[in-house]
């Protein structure tokens, strides 16, 4: 039987660290369900991109890397903000999976309590490959594009994501977009 893993993240934006985690997961399982969490949030400093934009970024990155679409499924998942019900909500929104991959303490705890096998994933230069750091760099006109796959950088420029973040932060004065 083919084994499927679950990887939950906000992917605000999808960066090279996320890509390395997906590659790692696909060494362990046949298929991965990538759950794009907090799908209902967008246009804030913490969640600047829509679920559709994050899904597009993720697909572009995986395609650019040559990962077969047969090996992954991208799904937006809204937050319930009720921890006791969250795992059941995720399970109801996704195909069956046998393993969960996460380092988030709450995610690990909730899925373990629900009886799932949970495996930690390696961090890849976490201080650099951090969506928070990337968003910070976008807001201050520093290099951020080297931290994401080329296709993701192009897409963010296309949707004027840098400008969106700068506007939301009130630091629009230095933008050249």
Helix content: 40-55%
Rg value: 16 Å
Largest sheet composition: 5 strands, parallel
Record the strand order, biggest sheet. Answer: 3-2-1-4-5
Q: What string, H for helix and E for strand, traces the elements in order?
A: EHEHEHEHEHHH
Shape: globular
Count of spatially separate domains: 1
Instruction: Write down the CATH topology.
Output: Rossmann fold
Tell me the name of the CATH class.
Alpha Beta
Overall pLDDT: 93
Number of distinct beta strands: 5
Sheet-strand content, in percent, reads: 5-15%
Distance between the termini: 50 Å
The count of helical stretches stands at 7
Task: List key phrases describing it.
alpha/beta; Rossmann fold; 5-stranded parallel β-sheet; 7 helices
């Amino acid at each position: 039987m083919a084994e499927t893993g679950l990887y939950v993240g906000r992917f605000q934006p999808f960066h090279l660290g996320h890509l390395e985690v997906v590659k790692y997961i696909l060494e362990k399982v046949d298929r991965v369900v990538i759950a794009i969490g907090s799908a209902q949030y967008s246009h804030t400093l913490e969640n600047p991109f829509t679920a559709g934009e994050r899904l597009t970024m993720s697909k572009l990155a995986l395609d650019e890397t040559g990962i077969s679409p047969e090996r992954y499924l991208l799904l937006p998942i809204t937050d319930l903000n009720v921890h006791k019900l969250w795992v059941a909500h995720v399970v109801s929104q996704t195909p069956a999976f046998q393993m969960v991959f996460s380092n988030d303490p709450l995610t690990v705890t909730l899925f373990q309590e629900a009886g799932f096998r949970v495996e930690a994933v390696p961090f890849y230069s976490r201080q650099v490959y951090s969506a928070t750091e990337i968003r910070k760099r976008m807001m201050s006109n520093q290099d951020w594009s080297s931290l994401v796959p080329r296709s993701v950088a192009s897409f963010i420029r296309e949707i004027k994501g840098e400008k969106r973040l700068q506007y939301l932060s009130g630091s629009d004065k230095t933008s050249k977009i």
